[in-house]
Amino acid sequence: MRHLFGYIGEKGYRSRSAALDFFREISGLYYLTRATLYCTFIEPLRGKPNKWGPVWIQMEEVGVKSTGIVFLISFLIGVILAFNSAYQMSRMGALDYVGALVGVTVLKELGPLMTALVIAGRVGASFTAEMGTMKVSDEILALETMALNPVKFLITPRFLALLIMLPCLTLMADFMGILGGYVVGVTTLGIDSAPYIQHSLEKMKVIDVVTGLIKSGVFAVIIVMVGSYLAFIIEGGAEKVGENTRSSVVISMVLIIIANLLFTALFYFIT
Amino acid sequence: MIEVKNLYKSFGEGDKKIVVLENFHARFERGKTTSIIGGSGSGKSTILKLLIGAYKADAGEILIDGEDVTQLDNERMNEVRKKFGVMFQSGALFNSLTVEENVALPLREHTQLNDSTIRIIVKMKLEMVGLRGAEHLKPAQLSGGMIKRIALARAIALDPKIVFYDEPSAGLDPISIGVIDELIMSLSRKMAITSIVVTHELPSAMRISDKIIMLFKGKIIANGSPEELKNSDDPRVIQFIKGDPDGPIPFSKSQVDYGEELKQMNI
To answer: Which residues, 6+ apart, have CB-to-CB distance to B62 below 8 Å?
Structure first.
C-alpha cells in the first residue's frame, strides 16, 4: 500500500513539474513573440528603423530557395487529389467537377497547410540549428555585450522574411496544385479542358485565397517563433542543438495543424 | 574604473543551491591590467559574466565609473556596454560574416560613420593585432590564435575604456600566447585601457598583470602584485603557483566522502 501511494505521489510530483515546465515554455514563447513584435513593428516607429539588407538575404534563403520543393510537392498534391476524387466523382457521374473539388481544397486547405509544413521542416529546422549553434558558441552573448539586441538582430529579419515569403509561396503552391489537377484531369482522366476550367472558376472564390493567405501569415509566425525560441533556450552543446532542432520541427508542425483546425472551425461558423 | 563590492552569486534552488561567489571585493584601476586567476570551478568566469551583465548578482554592487550597473534596466545597461569590449574564450566571431564584417559590426550598428571610414578603422584595428590582409577570410578559415586576435580587434573596435578578456591564452601555442600577452600590454599602455583578464595561465598572468586576484571556491585568497603573489606564504597560493597535485586545493571535486558514497550505493 505504501508503495502504491509512493508511486502515485511520485507520478503526481512528476506530472506537476512537467506541467510547470510546459507553462514555463509557453510563457517564454509568449514573451519572445512579444519582444519580436515590438522590435519589428513598434521600434521602427520610435526612430530605430529596420535594416532591410539582412531581410533580403533571409527572403532569398527562406523564400526563393524553397520554391522548387514547394512547387514539386503542391503539384503532386494536385495530381493525387485529382486521381482520388475522379474515382468517387465518376461513380456519381460528376467527373467534370473534379476541377472544382481540387481547386477549392487546394485554395482553402492544402495549399497553405502543405506549404507551411514543408517550410517548417526546411526553414524552421535551419533557424533552430543556426541560432542554436550561435547560442552555444557564445555568439548571442557577444551580441548582447556589444549592446546589440539579439531579437532585433537575428529574429526580426527572419520574421519579416518569412511573413512576406510564406504567403507568396502559398500563392505559388495554390497555382501549382490547381495546375497539377488540371494536367491529370485533361490528359489522363479524359475530362475536357473547357468544362474543367469553367466548373473550377465557378467554385473557387477570392475569399478562399484571402483566408489561405491569412492562415499562412499565422503559420509563418508559428514557424519563426518556435524555431527561434527553441534556439535561444539552448544551454550546453551539440547534443542539445540536435534535440531542439528536432523539437522545433515537431512542435511547429503540431501547432500549424492546431491553428489550421481553429481557422477551419472559425470560418465554418462565420461563413 | 570599476569597483566591485560584496558581490554574491549562487546557482540552483533549495538543496541544490551552490554558492559560486562569496563576498567578492575588487578595484580595477584605470589603465591597469588586473588578472583574476584560479582553478576550474573557482568562480572566475562567473565574475566576468557578472561584470558584463550576462548574469544578475544575488547581492552586491558593481560600480562602473561610479554607476551601479546591477540596478540598471536593459536599455541603460546597453549604454554602459558601449564603454567596454569583451574578448571571449572561443572568440565568438560570427561565422556567417567575414573578418572585416565582424570587426565592422559594432561600428556599423553604433556609429553614424560612412562605409569608407569604417573600412579604414577596421584596417587600423587589424593592423594593431597584426592581421591586416585577412579581411576577406571567414572565421572557419582561421587558426585558434588568429580567431582570438580578430576577437580582440572586434573588442577594441569602438575604442572602449575597459576590455574584458576571457581566457585569452587558453589552448594556444607558447608563441601565440606571447603575442596575445604583448597585445594586451601594449593596448593598456597605448590607449589607457582598463584590462580585466580571467585566466588560469599563471605565467602569462604574471607577465601582463599589475595586480592579480586569486580565487578559490568563490573566495579571494590572494590579492596583490605578481611579486607579492610569488612571495606569498599561503599554502593554497604556493600550490597553485607550483602546480602541485597534492596540497590544500583538492584534486577531487566531489562533496561527499568516497567511502560513505560507496557504502550507500544500492547495487
So the answer is: B2, B3, B4, B7, B50, B51, B68, B69, B70
CA separation, residue A141 to residues A248, B47, B86 (Å): 22, 15, 10
Mutant choice from A146, A149, A158, A232 vs B, greatest count of B C-beta within 10 A: A146
pLDDT digits (tens, 9 = 90+) for B214-261: 888 888 888 888 888 888 888 888 888 887 777 777 766 666 778 888
> Does A145 contact B81 at a Cβ distance shorter than 8 Å?
yes
Cβ–Cβ below 8 Å for A146 and B79: no
Q: Which of chain A's residues have a Cβ under 8 Å away from the Cβ of B94? A: 134, 139, 142
State the best of A138, A141, A151, A232 to mutate against chain B, taking most chain B CBs within 10 Å: A138
Measured distance CA(B13)–CA(B180) in Å, rounded: 39
Q: What is the distance in angstroms between the CA of the first residue and the CA of the last residue of chain A?
A: 57
How does pLDDT run across A119-170, given as a tens digit for each residue? 999 999 999 999 999 999 889 989 988 888 899 999 999 999 999 999 999 9
Three-state DSSP at B151 gives helix
Nearest C-alpha of chain A: how many angstroms from B260?
26
B31-55+84-246 maps to which CATH number?
Answer: 3.40.50.300
B133-148 pLDDT, tens digit per residue, is: 888 999 999 888 889 8
**ipTM for the whole predicted complex goes beyond 0.85:** no
Taking CB atoms and an 8 Å cutoff, what residues of chain B touch A147? 78-79, 81-82, 110
Candidates B81, B86, B92; nearest CB to A137: B92
Q: Which of A134, A141, A147 sits opposite B82 (nearest CB)?
A: A147
DSSP B17-36: -EEEEEEEEEEE-TT-EEEE
Domain locations in chain B as residue ranges:
31-55+84-246
- Among candidates B84, B97, B156, which has minimal Cα distance to A134? B97
